[in-house]
Each structure stands twice: as C-alpha cells, then as structure tokens.
Amino acid sequence: MKTSEFKNSKGVTVVVNKELNKLRGREFFPEKLKKVNEILAKSGLPKLDR
Amino acid sequence: MKHNKYLSEADDTFLIYQFISEGPKGLVRKSVIFSDTNVENVYNLAFGDYDPMTDTLDDLSNTNNGDSKKVLATVAATIYTFTEKYPEAWITATGSTKARTRLYQMGIANNLAEIVKDFVIFGYNCKGYWEQFIVGEQYEVYLLTRK
Question: Is the ipTM here above 0.95?
Fold first, then answer.
C-alpha cells in the first residue's frame, strides 16, 4: 500500500487503497446532489479573481 | 483545524476517503466522497457512516463516539488533501438535516480565520445567491475553493 503525504500540508495522511475505487461514480445522496445541481443551474458560481 | 486527525485511506484518484472513528461505541467506518456535479470542476462533498456490507453511506446516524472534533478535523483535512490534488476544484457541502447544516456552520465559524488563509468560502443564502461566508448568517449550502 502506498502512503501519500503532501509536503507542508494541512491535509490528511492517506494510504491509497484501490479497493475504494469501487465506490467511484456512485450517487450516495441523490437528493442532496439534486439540490446542489439546482442551485448551480440557477445561480452558477460566484465570480472569483484568481 | 489543529485537532488530531484520523489516518485515512483513499482511492487512487483521491476522490474517496475512509477513516475509522474510535470511541466508546467501538469502531465506525466513515467516508468522505467528492462527487461530480453537473458543473465541471465542482464537486459535492458527501459524508457519512459507511456500511461495508451494503457499500452504502448513512448521513443521518449519530455515532456518539466522543470524537466529533477529531472527525470534523479529519473531514476538513480531506478537503485540504483533495484540493491539493485538484487545486482548481470548487466544493459544495450541505448537511443531511438543518441541524447538521447548522453544525457545519458552527465548525466553519469557529475555524474561519484558519480556513480563509487558504480558501474562499461562500454560503448560499435565503435570498438565493452566493455571498462570502458571514458568521451568524444562515446558509443552505456552503461552497469553497482554494485561493
């Protein structure tokens, strides 16, 4: 198993586990996702100067 | 957030994270998943207790393992890790109930000074538009991205 830790990171130390790949692409909370998509369709994203 | 964090597992795209909450209620596997939305580069954060028997998440349960700050810190840390991998990404998040959304609001408000060092954070207000997060305001959905 590969351990990844990003330098100077406030992130979490992770161990890559390819068994978790099986969860990709699934919608676990479709109602919440639907609400978010409705908001994004109506209001888009705020303007941001990067 | 300066609280301890749990060590996590991740899939090889860093979209899915799992960690184990430990406490008086035993070992509870929790998942954080960044799901595609209909907008490119915008991901919705899903979080809940993971059931390995059914491969499902439960976002309504109250584990009461006495480690809520550590769990919240771990979830927050996955956002840092995810956005280090996907620096242009936007993340939306909302609670499964109004009480949960308020809980997240408190977590954001209590750590806002730390959060805004690295992120811009918005809330979707009752008037139907995004505004930069204001402490004390009620929001339906949160949205953040790296500065």
Answer: no
Task: Give tens-digit pLDDT for B116-144.
Answer: 999 999 999 999 999 999 999 999 999 99
Dist CA A10 CA B80 (whole Å): 6
Alpha carbons B82 and B77: distance in angstroms, whole number: 9
- Residue B9 has its nearest CB partner, among A17, A29, A43, at A17
Residue type for position B79: I
Helices and strands counted in chain B (H then E): 3, 9
Determine the 3-state secondary structure of A15 from DSSP.
strand
Q: What is the pTM of this model?
A: 0.90
Q: CB distance B11–A37 less than 8 Å?
A: no
Exposed / middle / buried, residue A14 (Cβ in 10 Å: 0-12, 13-18, 19+): buried
Residue B82 to chain A, least CA–CA distance (Å): 8
pLDDT tens readout for residues B47-92 = 999 998 988 888 877 778 889 889 988 999 999 999 999 999 999 9
Helix H or strand E encompassing B57: strand B56-58
Report whether B81 contacts B14 (CB < 8 A): yes
